[in-house]
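User: Can you help me understand a structure? I only have the sequence.
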Amino acid sequence: SYSPSRVVTMLRELLFNITKTFGRVPESTIVGFGPSIVESTMRLWSVPLVLKVTSVTPKELHTYLDALFEKNRDHARAGAFCYPTDVLFNGYSVNPLFFLEKKNKVPVEEVSFRVILSYFFEETDKQLADIKRMLGGITFEFMPLGYAYEKAVLSSSGLQDVFLIDVGGKHTQLFFIKEGRLCGLASFPLGGDYFIKGAVEAWNLPFEEAHEITRQYGEGLVSGAKKAELALLFVERANAWKVKLIEELDTFYHIGPLPQEVFLFGGGSYLPEIQHAISAPDWMRDFSYAEVPHVTMFGGERIWRGGSLNGMVRGAEEVGLGALMQYSLYRKPLF
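Assistant: Let's start by predicting it. Here is the structure, written out as tokens:
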């Protein structure tokens, strides 16, 4: 059965095999987490500067961020980490490296960070520390997958404003990218497994068999009476899923109206009932300037401009893997 601890155990086994194969510990290991492993929220943290300056060094930015993290994290909870997605000077997003190369003529009075603050579930943070000790001090970079999605979508689509819906197994994640930056995220605990469990309950099937039937249905391979029964079942569940999605949209109210462009992906997104629920205009009217969403099915191969790395990355269920791979290859430090 699934559990966060089991996922970390599988990660440990994978890293051990990689280390054994290559004969050395990787220089750095980037691990992307979703809502099944960590609870994440976006925050905006600010620090006023006592003395106005015209440049801020990366070292100073790290010092400010560390202090803000310690101030704002919940110390009663273990396994906390934050991932910066944007730096702002005087309330405006900036590239800090530009301020190092070209002296800013405007005094910096306030430094702010837009961050994803995350907390591990269960004992996963201790298990990850154990992995580090077992493999001789391996360097981990923890990151929420949403940040990798931002980079992948921007580079492959050219869009600056887009709303992402990732229908995973246990959860659905929502991401609001505005003016080229991830500005908000939310999730709710209904994903593709919610539909599979409907088939399990309706026909008393093992989960694996119900999963296969659901997959075939999503690919249009089921016909006749069975198709009609599944459609009736999944419409009901899609309506319940949509209610939860609409409830979470209030999370983005302070950011502004949702964009018309919507990218749909994840293992559960292949279900026609999910696609129909998102393509219908009713859910967007109260949250966007657009009357009708423009929905695009986003596959992992699109991240690589039509390629799939010899079949390694393809389809809506591989977007997370493809985004993390792209981030690992082309990442640049924020500061």
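Now, to help you interpret it: The chain has a mean pLDDT of 89. Residues 224-248 form the longest helix (25 residues). Let me know which part you'd like to focus on.
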